[in-house]
Amino acid sequence: MKRRSICKGGFGRLVSILTAVVVAAASVGAYSVSPAAAKSTNYNNYSNNTIEFGLGLRTDHKRPLCDKPKGIRLSDFKTYYFGPKAYKKKKKVIYLTFDCGYENGNTKYILNTLKRYKVKAIFFVTEPYVKDNPKLVKRMKREGHLVGNHTCSHPRMTSLTVAQMKREVRQCARTMKKKTGYRMDPYFRPPEGVYSVRVMKVMKDMGYSTMLWSLALYDYDVNNQPSVSTVRSKFKAHHFCGMMPLLHVVSSGDRKALPYVIKDMKKKGYRFGTVDEFAGKKAKKKSAKKSKK
Description:
- The chain is of the alpha/beta class.
- Mean pLDDT is 88; it is low at 1-32 and 287-293.
- Helix 3 (107-116) links the parallel strand 6 and strand 7.
- It has helices at residues 10-26, 84-88, 107-116, 127-132, 134-142, 162-180, 197-205, 228-238, 252-267, 281-292; strands at 51-52, 55-56, 65-66, 79-80, 93-95, 97-100, 122-125, 146-149, 187-188, 194-195, 209-211, 215-216, 245-248, 271-273.
- The longest helix has 19 residues, at 162-180.
- It is built from 10 helices and 14 strands.
């Protein structure tokens, strides 16, 4: 019996198909994967020194100082803690972000408020949140919100190997697709704000932008919630163009204060945008239009 040989050009096509499959698998949960993701990267060349993100808040309505690696420009790693375009151009935009670790009855009311005031936001979900609340996550997407990746088990990312980092993010994205039918939007928030140059590089290579924050409240302890007046006063004291506040869906204080915060900020001339205006497809489309002019 003669051995069947690969026809001319067949091997090349086979390689192309296999490459496409690998890239597609790597891109689950993201709009696109950077070219660097397809290359072999030695992540040992990128520092994994832990940075615990914190802020030096200001009351002059300028962007706060933050904890970041020395000599590193965050935007080079697609990492942001405020909207750079809005800040540079002094446009009054606020980007609301919510972390979703688990559900305790507040999210539907938060979504009701956002819908009532025609405000869009981004929700960073963990895998357990998606598994337990697929209807809520579907509603987020249906109503025009972004849904970003907050990992499977909420680990300190710098304690993981690169393979473990990727697994945490990919599995969360796969669960999102399986349980809701929607793809994960390509935005990542590191649990507890723990990150490193290596974490940023891995996320960038996976096609994600890393999203930190420029205002945070002590709102995650359900037994010690901020009052409505406390939440409102934080926004009034520290608002600035491009602010990206971090709120938690477990917070009854945030849920109660949200309509007042929206009205307060709108009175000051702000609109509420989504992070894809400066990071993602929408931002790329805008820059492409400008270049054509």
